[in-house]
Amino acid sequence: MSSLRFRVVEKAFQTKAREFSIPEERPSEYFGKYVFNREKMFKYLPGDVFAKLVDVIDNGAALDSGIADEVASGMKRWAMELGATHYTHWFQPLTEGTAEKHDAFVEHNGKGGMMEEFSGKLLVQQEPDASSFPNGGIRNTFEARGYSAWDPSSPVFVVDDTLCIPTIFISYTGESLDYKTPLLKALRAMNKAAVDVCHYFDPSVKKVFSYLGWEQEYFLVDEGLYAARPDLLLTGRTLMGHEASKNQQLEDHYFGAIPIRVAAFMKDLEIQALELGIPVKTRHNEVAPNQFELAPIYEECNLAVDHNMLIMSLMRKVARAHGFRVLLHEKPFKGINGSGKHNNWSLGTDNGIALMAPGKTAEENLRFITFIVNTLMAVYRHNGLLKASIMSATNAHRLGANEAPPAIISSFLGTQLSQVLDHLEVSTDEDMGVLVGKHGMKLDIPQIPELLIDNTDRNRTSPFAFTGNRFEFRAVGSEANCASAMIALNTAMAEQLTDFKRDVDEAMSDDVSKETAILQVLRRYIKTCKPIRFDGNGYSEEWKAEAARRGLDCETSCPVIFDNYLSESSVRMFTSTGVMTKVELEARNEVKWETYTKKIQIEARVLGDLAMNHIVPVATHYQSMLINNVYRLKELFDASEAEGMSAENISLIREIAERTAYIKKHVDDMVEARKVANRIDNVREKAIAYHDTIAPMLEQIRYHIDKLELIVDDQMWTLPKYRELLFIR
Ligand code: ADP
Ligand code: MG
Asked: Which one of the ligands is nearest to 476 CA?
């Protein structure tokens, strides 16, 4: 019965590492080979066009339609030399992936033949039929027009035979239908607010960048085994499967030697990533078996987001070439760690100052403390929203599930930085005033040696940890678009820095120096945002109670957490910064609720199918064999002897009967519960119904299936088991 399972397991065991081509050049030589970067722009564009385009990229100058044709023509020439025949606007709709529609360069030449053509108009703007992308009701199908517009701040690149142009995607009436539009607006708002604050310390600052360095965790599974698991195939996670006797308890996988087959995949992936200009740097085994991590050197946030989207699709492609499937789902396997995507985030200026790194002088440290405290304030004020920004049906399996970050946002600072803030909190104006007066810039700010901070104790349970020169937002899901978290965080920072500037300006007077005013405001903030600081164990029960006392958002229901986007403080934050309108927020929430419902719905269907046509039949078949055995024993032996010999089997027969009955009944109940939920019109209420009634049933049914897996004859079991999925290379 399960010959397929044994065949795929055997094949997976025997699969050798694949060959792949290693470039003859060094990485520094092939880095960015397929990217139209500055070097290429310089080579393929006329001098004046190059200068104008650089102005557009660096200073956000408007794109002069006069140069668009020449830019497009240069791009086309470069792309065609690499073998490209098509181009596409590449955008990030409100699904977890990217979207593209390829058009060939060909046009009629007017003489009955064809020619390669790519105009500025096609580069700059297009109108893909947008009606089938999630839009939360912003457009009805009869008003399907939306358009994509080039984002010159992210360079175009070639994948296979296609020139890919990063674009934003908006409705005809201007509402954003993607992740990039609000991200660019958030970055612009943050830049403006942060530059203003920087001017307290350095009037020459012109621009503040938001930096993002993501760490991408993922699982690899042999593709034959993957294909034999319909749940993995259709939902990205295993909906059933008993824990293997050995999983991660020995902690022997973390940083262990990378298996040869996996190493080949990683090398191939890295080469292709570098060719696409993604500066990948770090790779290692993660905690769980078959779990790995990949991290690049951090980049400007918008580019880093694009690169993460690109690498996720590259990973899928390269994995298949190596006979693997990559699992980006946050929780593919029960009982072992899930995958996250730590978002390392910091701010830095155009003149090279890292705003979240301690400095050497008191003045530098005042600036450092200013940005740290404002970050804490932003996170404190919007902790519920930040949680909503990383929440999804899939990431819900990680959050609060006694691993990875808890479902409460708090920030870990480490002993040293905590002490500095505590010290500032209790200091008085007099301390400060005297010192400022006497020594000019010599403020009473403790020296903070950079090295020490860099080695601060790590707290793996903290969802938002300070790590020396950046904050690490760990709660982001492995499958998510980083933009969601980055939009919320940078917008919160924009609002907070704007408020800070206003507060400091108000506090300054003839008697109160700028430094004193800054310290006064910071001291107040340190007191206000104290509830967000937590250095203890984020997984503990005590913390849940304590966090509730502190007034932090402790909600655990995914669809209810989404409400945070529509709270008064969130709407004020997004609208005052010009990042999103109320209509956009409402539409996006509709998409979130709908997506949530659909994901649970699909899981429920798949589990129902598998239960009824894999598990119950196999269990029943095994049960029949046992029954047969019981009868045969009766024929061979006298009644009392046969009874004694059959006792074990009879209890197994009973257990199988009970569990299969339970499974059948609950699959029926789940269908009924879906019918009830599906009749609810309100998308939010429907999502809540799916969360409250259907999601728990998945777990209950699974429980009995996993118990059956332990007693049914291994020969008969059709689905590859955890021990096979997780330990084969
Ligand atoms: P760890 O696992 O110790 O957190 P990794 O090396 O796996 O460290 O990843 C750290 C990530 O943080 C990398 O992507 C790195 O580029 C990024 N990073 C380092 N410094 C900064 C910074 N100042 N701002 C943003 N990201 C940073
Ligand atoms: Mg990290």
From this structure: 2
Ligand 1 atom at minimum distance from 295 CA: 14
Q: How far apart are CA 163 and CA 143, in angstroms?
A: 29
Cβ of 468 less than 6 Å from ligand 1: no
Q: For residues 94 and 132, is the Cβ–Cβ distance under 8 A?
A: no
pTM over 0.70: yes
| Ligand 2 midpoint to CA 479 (Å) | 17
Contact 321/470 with Cβ under 8 angstroms?
no
Q: For the CA atoms of 452, 458, 463, 467, what is the dihedral angle to 10 degrees?
A: 30
Biggest alpha carbon distance in the chain? 108
Q: Take residue 546 and report the two structure tokens written for it.
A: 């304590």
pLDDT band at 436 (very low <50, low <70, confident <90, very high): very low
- Weakest mean pLDDT among 167-181, 382-396, 655-669: 167-181
Q: What are the tokens at 622? A: 């095994």
Residue partners of 603: CB distance under 8 A and separation at least 6: 231, 235, 239, 698
Q: Are strands 99-100 and 157-159 parallel, antiparallel or unpaired?
A: unpaired
Rounded distance, CA 597 to CA 225, Å? 28
Quick one: pLDDT at residue 433? Answer: 42
How far, in Å, CA of 458 to CA of 541, rounded? Answer: 21
CA separation, residue 176 to residues 138, 183, 415 (Å): 9, 10, 42
Write down the pLDDT at residue 435.
37
Tens digits of per-residue pLDDT, 527-540? 999 999 998 888 88
Q: Which two tokens stand for residue 525?
A: 């903030």
**Secondary structure of residue 9 in the 3-state scheme:** helix
